[in-house]
Design goal:
The protein contains 16 helices and 23 strands. The strands form six sheets. It has a five-stranded mixed sheet with strand order 1-23-22-12-18. The protein has a five-stranded parallel sheet with strand order 7-3-2-11-19. Among the domains are: 133 residues, Succinate dehydrogenase/fumarate reductase flavoprotein, catalytic domain (Flavocytochrome C3, Chain A, domain 1, Alpha-Beta Complex), CATH 3.90.700.10; 154 residues, Up-down Bundle (Methane Monooxygenase Hydroxylase, Chain G, domain 1). It is α+β, with helices and mostly antiparallel strands. The protein starts with 29 loop residues before the first strand and ends in a 14-residue tail after the last strand.
């Protein structure tokens, strides 16, 4: 079979364990599965994408209208792929649970978008971009995909600029850039502190253009709750109208999930309250694999929790670390006002520990360093749970007008949220659950282990490895949506011309709709006394305590037991009023939290199974003087989890498949930012 269309089927024979060095699982109930082939073209990773794209099969413009594609999610990845496929003439159905596609959570990524355009004389290059990305991810991503991200980044900036993103400019008219964490060059393009919002507006406008042309059907206030799978292939989605409660099926020749990450499982997170993992988890329960589940990024510049009853944290852009200096008092318990603490009694700990990168050290390292200071009693603020981000030096050097031009809306947001003026006093920041590097495992074509099911953006595991560098999230979503999936999906569809879509009477459709209805009925029938948010809050506390910035084997075992017990109580005690035939936000939340309670167990199992520290996954047992200790001999692979659940009160039955990761252009090395 041509490698272009080779698939790793679930019934494939397992490879000898010695072929990919995967250690036997030491977690009860976990089986070691198969060696996965990601379909990366052989040879030089720097030319892999060009060779792959040139070999794709095409769909004639006369035939595109004969194919239906369902796109779930309208953020940068979802809006991009829906608009691009619509422009090509495909029949596209786009789904969002928002009342408008422009409300997707991509708007929250404020600081900028990376690109290897190399327009400054600062030593940047495409290869340096790849090195920074692979190294930043602690060598737990595909090298060839980092090259694709770098190569397409140039096109992304020019494209988004062309469709209306108002990028900042230098005095002479050139697009302006600034630095972000984990790099020593200036490659981040930005629109003040509103980059995600402006890119999302541009993408949503492109999507609405296709809606007006009739190539895209937009379904707002509609949530995907299951996949239609027939003979092992994805054939559509089952959705619920969140206003009327109607459940209906949309058959499709291919489905794209671009539904974002699952950081909101921690309850207190930088994500919007409605962000969830249901679409991804429903795909996992239908047979897709979930990879890198435990690689969760804690953003070092989130606002600290000020009250137990606070519903979420607020993200302050990493771009602030270009001019802000991070410090804590040297003396534990020092309760003086920051202005009263002299310079020689301040510890600028990132500048001290990582002098080459200083306050622009990568997010995982910066978050661990902040937690170390807070745990040592040097935290600041009323709850002693934060560190200072101080702009006094920058204000003195550049003046208020310059700083306001760079970060004015971020300063205003901080002032509104805290009542404190960051022009006068330092900001207080703390690590907060933010971005999930984990997501649905996919091959180099971004197709999951279910043929016909594609994934893009944060819902995917691609590009970032064990830690995402700042400003690569908007980039990866745009690359997936505009410049990868519109090539790889036609390659898949080209061999399916004339394939009949399943109808309402087909067994695969009836079964999928029946699963959704049965799940809704089960949630409504519990009849307990506790609101769904009660269980979400408890789950978040377990996750922060045991599956947070730092993990231990004992803590992860406690998390697994605690989550299983919490899931059992959820199915006995949750209260969902109303019916399924109406607008019912309690029902929405209950379904999403039920999925979180299963996903949380998998995250803890993955963290316990991976016996090393890598990037954002930091096991206390595996460190060298506080720095992460990778084990490349045994763990240089991507875990891809297959899930089969017991009854609602039982644990998950899990199989860990693995895709080996090799590196040629960026040799394996210990990360160092000193």
């Amino acid at each position: 079979m041509n490698w272009l269309h080779r698939r790793t089927k679930p019934d494939a024979a397992p490879a000898p364990e010695s072929a990919w060095r995967a250690p036997r699982a030491k977690v009860d109930g976990v089986r070691v599965g198969r060696r996965l082939d990601g379909g990366v073209p052989d040879g030089d990773p720097a030319t892999a994408w060009e060779r792959r794209r040139s070999a794709y099969r095409l769909v004639s413009p006369l035939n595109t209208k004969k194919f239906t594609v369902a796109v779930v999610g309208t953020g940068l990845a979802g809006a991009g792929v829906a608009a691009a496929l619509g422009e090509l003439g495909y029949n596209v159905h786009a789904f969002t649970y928002h009342d408008s596609p422009r409300r997707a959570h991509s708007v929250a990524a404020q600081g900028g978008i990376n690109a290897a355009r190399g327009r400054k004389v600062d030593g940047d290059s495409l290869h340096r971009f790849v090195v920074d990305t692979v190294k930043g991810g602690d060598f737990r991503a595909r090298e060839a995909e980092a090259y694709r991200l770098a190569q397409e980044s140039v096109r992304v900036i020019d494209h988004m600029n062309a469709i209306g993103a108002p990028f900042a400019r230098e005095y002479g008219g050139m697009l302006a850039t600034r630095s972000f964490g984990g790099v020593q060059v200036s490659r981040t393009y930005y629109t003040r502190g509103q980059t995600g919002q402006q890119l999302q507006i541009a993408g949503a406008q492109a999507l609405q253009r296709q809606v007006a042309r009739g190539t895209v059907s937009l379904h707002e206030r509609t949530e995907m709750l299951d996949l239609i799978v027939d003979d092992g292939e994805c054939r559509g989605v089952v959705v619920r109208d969140l206003v009327t409660g109607q459940v209906w099926a949309q058959p499709a020749h291919a489905v794209v999930l671009a539904t974002g990450g699952y950081g909101s499982i921690y309850f207190h997170s930088t994500l919007a309250m409605n962000s969830n993992a249901t679409a991804v988890w429903r795909a996992v329960r239908a047979g897709a694999y979930l990879s890198h589940a435990s690689f969760v990024q804690f953003h070092p510049t989130a606002l600290p929790i000020s009250s137990h009853w606070q519903s979420k944290t607020i993200l302050m852009s990493e771009s602030l670390r270009n001019d802000g200096r991070i410090w804590v008092p040297k003396r534990a318990g020092d309760d003086r006002a920051p202005a009263d603490i002299p310079e020689d009694e301040r510890d600028y700990y990132l500048e001290r520990k990582y002098p080459s990168f200083g306050n622009l050290s990568p997010r995982d390292i910066s978050s661990r360093a902040a937690k170390e200071q807070i745990d040592a009693g040097r935290g600041v603020g009323p709850l002693r749970n934060s560190v200072y981000l101080d702009f006094s030096d920058a204000l003195q050097a550049h003046g208020r007008d310059v700083i306001a031009a760079r970060y004015g809306n971020l300063f205003d947001m901080y002032h509104h949220a805290t009542g404190e003026d960051p022009y006068s006093v330092p900001m207080r920041i703390a690590p907060g659950a933010h971005f999930t590097m984990g997501g649905l495992w996919s091959d180099y074509d971004q197709m999951t282990s279910i043929p016909g099911l594609f994934v893009g953006g944060e819902a995917s595991w691609a590009y970032h490895g064990a830690n995402r560098l700042g400003a690569n999230s908007l980039l990866s979503a745009c690359v997936d949506g505009w410049f990868t999936l519109p090539f790889s999906i036609p390659n898949y569809l080209s061999g399916r011309l004339g394939t009949r879509l399943p109808g309402a009477d087909d067994a695969c459709v009836r079964d999928a709709v029946a699963r959704v209805t049965a799940r809704t009925d089960a949630l409504l029938a519990v009849g307990g006394e506790r609101a769904p948010s009660h269980f979400h809050r408890e789950l978040g506390e377990l996750m922060y305590r045991h599956v947070g910035v730092e993990r231990t084997a004992d803590g992860l075992r406690a998390a697994i037991d605690g989550i299983r017990e919490l899931r059992s109580r959820f199915w006995r005690e949750v209260r969902v009023p109303g019916t399924g035939a109406e607008l019912n936000q309690s029902l929405e939340k209950a379904g999403r939290i039920a999925d979180f309670l299963e996903l949380g167990e998998l995250m803890a199992v993955d963290a316990l199974d991976r016996q090393e520290s890598a990037g954002a996954h930091f096991r206390s047992e595996y460190q060298d003087a506080g720095e992460a200790r990778r084990d490349d001999e045994r763990w240089a692979f991507a875990s891809a989890w297959e899930v089969d659940a017991d009854d609602a009160a039982g644990g998950l039955r899990l199989t860990r498949h693995a895709e080996p990761l090799t590196f040629t252009a960026v040799p394996l090395a210990t990360r160092s930012y000193t």
